[in-house]
Design goal:
mainly alpha, 30S ribosomal protein S20, ribosomal protein
C-alpha cells in the first residue's frame, strides 16, 4: 500500500480510469457481437443499422484513447466485410 499522498491519489485515479476503459471496451464488444449475430441471421437491414452504431462506439473509444487508430480501423473493416458478404 502506498504511503505518499500523491501515490494514494494515483491509485484512486487509475482505478477510475480502468473502470471507464473496461466499460467502453465492453460496450464495443457488445455492439460488435450484435452486428455478427445479425450477419449470421442474414438480416442485412438490421446488420447495417447495428454496424452504424458499432462504428460510432468504436470511433468514440478511439477519440478517448482507449483504442489505437489502427486497431479501430481493423475492427471497423472486419465488421464492414461481414456485412458486405450478405447478398
Amino acid at each position: 500500500m502506498a504511503n505518499i499522498k500523491s501515490a494514494k491519489k494515483r491509485i484512486k485515479v487509475i482505478a477510475t480510469k480502468t473502470a471507464r476503459n473496461r466499460a467502453i471496451t465492453s460496450a464495443v464488444k457488445t455492439y460488435s457481437k450484435k452486428v455478427i449475430s445479425a450477419v449470421q441471421a442474414k438480416d442485412k437491414e438490421l446488420a447495417q443499422t447495428q454496424l452504424k452504431i458499432a462504428v460510432k462506439k468504436i470511433d468514440q473509444a478511439t477519440s478517448k484513447g482507449i483504442f489505437h487508430s489502427n486497431t479501430a480501423g481493423r475492427k471497423k473493416s472486419k465488421l464492414q466485410r461481414l456485412v458486405n458478404q450478405i447478398a
